[in-house]
Amino acid sequence: MSKLQVETISHTNNTTAMTVDSSGRILQPTKPSFCARHNGTTFNTNGATIAWNLTNGTYGSFDIGNNYNTSTYKYIVPITGVYWFQMESITNVNANEITLQIRGGSDGTSTIQQSHITKDHSNWQTQQISVLQSCTAGDQIHCYQVGSVNWYGSTWGWFGGCLIG
């Protein structure tokens, strides 16, 4: 058996890819991940990609690798692997008979996970969808909604994901 005893693994261009601390914990500072938020409070979506339009640090948003497009609201997979994606927000009283989807594939049109929303009361309610998905570099991942509903943005809702391996 061999032993590799190093604290930092880096690319030949000196980009740190991995750091191992004295306790054996591994930090991967360039591992693709993102958390997109919406730049306001309530916003409506009707049969379209949900507008998570911030990754600039506002409301805790981020985009390691700059792979999330804040104009198309799609995450472009940078490297083939297994990814985890999740969207969560609260919906208002008119959210009923809605289908929430995470879509992907090379053109972003394939449904890879979906959830049906039916409310039985008139209060705000949390909606959540997540998926663990094998993706190919270039796949376009986004949240899509069939039907009309008001979502709540700022710190009440988000769409995010990360490379697992």
Describe the structure.
With 165 residues, the protein is mainly beta. It has one domain (32-163): Sandwich (Jelly Rolls), CATH 2.60.120. The chain has no helices and 14 strands. The chain has strands spanning 8-10, 16-20, 26-27, 33-36, 42-49, 62-64, 68-69, 74-76, 81-91, 98-104, 110-117, 125-135, 140-152, 158-163. The strands form three sheets. Strands 5, 7, 8, 10, 11 and 13 form a six-stranded antiparallel β-sheet that branches. It has a five-stranded antiparallel β-sheet with strand order 6-4-14-9-12, with no helix packed on it. A hairpin with a 5-residue loop joins strand 1 (8-10) and strand 2. The protein starts with 7 loop residues before the first strand and ends with a strand. The mean pLDDT is 90.
Order of helix and strand elements from N to C terminus: EEEEEEEEEEEEEE
Mean pLDDT: 90
Q: Can you tell me the overall shape? A: elongated
Q: Rg from C-alpha positions?
A: 18 Å
| Tally of separate helices | 0
Helix/strand-derived category reads: mainly beta
* Strand segment tally: 14
As residue ranges, the low-confidence spans are none
CATH class, anyone? Mainly Beta
Question: Approximately what portion of the residues adopt beta-strand conformation?
Answer: over 45%
Q: Report the CATH topology name.
A: Jelly Rolls
